[in-house]
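Example 3.2
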Amino acid sequence: MVGVAIAVIVLLITLLDVHPFLALIAGSLVLGIGAGMGLDKAVSAFGDGMGSTLGHTGALIALGAILGKLLADSGAVNQIVDTLGSRSGPKLLPWTMALIAAIIGLPMFFEVGLVLLVPIIVAMTQRTNTPVARLAVPALAGLGALHAFVPPHPGPLVAVSALNADVGLTLGLGLIAAVPTVILAGPVYGNFIAKRVSATPPPALVASLTAEDDGDRRRPSFAVSILTIACPVVLMLAKSIADIAFPGDRWVNSLLDFLGEPLVAMFLAVVLAMFTFGYALGRTRAQVRDIVTAGLPAVAGILLIVGAGGGFKGLIVDSGVADAIGKVAAQAHIPALLLGWLVAVLIRLATGSATVATTAAAGIMAPLLVGVGTTEASLMALAIGAGSLFFSHVNDAGFWLSKEYFGMSVAQNVKTWSVLSTIVAVLGLLMALLMHAVLV
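Structure, written as tokens:
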């Protein structure tokens, strides 16, 4: 019945253009009824699953959106780009762009990060006479890898919650996996494909995106910008490192455990950003409040999809289907990490949504990880996240954003964005398997 329910979700999204939130509800009801739960129990299981998922991740996604909005409106993005870009020669530009995208991609959702980086990419290509693919590919690779691999992005957060993984450990392993992945899918592949793809961003778009900034607008310094972005990452990593290196009940451990809780870390980062990206730049309390408020509507759809995916997971567990899937997987003798990656890949290819793929795959794989260690759970979250990015194509909004912004044909965009997203997905799986061999 899971296959039928997923097919319903896929058909509704792809053929009838139904919003993923509604499609997930429909698929969940099909699963519940088909599994013999009855309408009342199916609805109850869906509600419990949705509430549980949003209880773990909803506030984090909202805080991440606020942090991203403060980052964007303050001019911190341009400050980071200007500082790093001014120190790069033509040969280093692709590497610099990958680094910038990775930094911006830590707290920002993919679509927001791309919209912010497009003016930078376009401006740099115009100033340096560099092929657009040579700079666009590293930027897309950096944003995509961070979006799929590390919290506080929605997909990894959902996977961490569903699989009972450790957020800090998942973040650390995701960052380790991201380094070689971004290098190979970004500057290395970008230099290769730029010689084979000739694209020109639309002239009207170039004119609008390369307009000069308001010279009177104050911006935070480079150091302050980096410090603010890194705040939640450092706090969550410190918690996990302290738990491993200094086990015990000392006050330092208790303090770091508190500060490193994802909700606390993200809240403190937002509070810090309100000062560094707001009050310190001369903005009034009303202006800061307006920026914070404006950051929330953009993630409403993501929250609904994540919640509905949690409801779908709840039905998978409560209907007993999860146990059956576990038995089939065990009989198939497919390594758990590879199986989780494959499930995410199939859902991703069908729906075009990395968040839907991660949410559904994590729910399906969760029963197989009962009783395993936190490292294995974190690596599963990484493998599923990697699979959720596999071969972005025409049913993915990111595909069309890349195509239109950089003036590519569909075929050119497949050679650039679709291939690089596949490289990220495959390398993410390989890194998860390698770290599993070393750590587990």
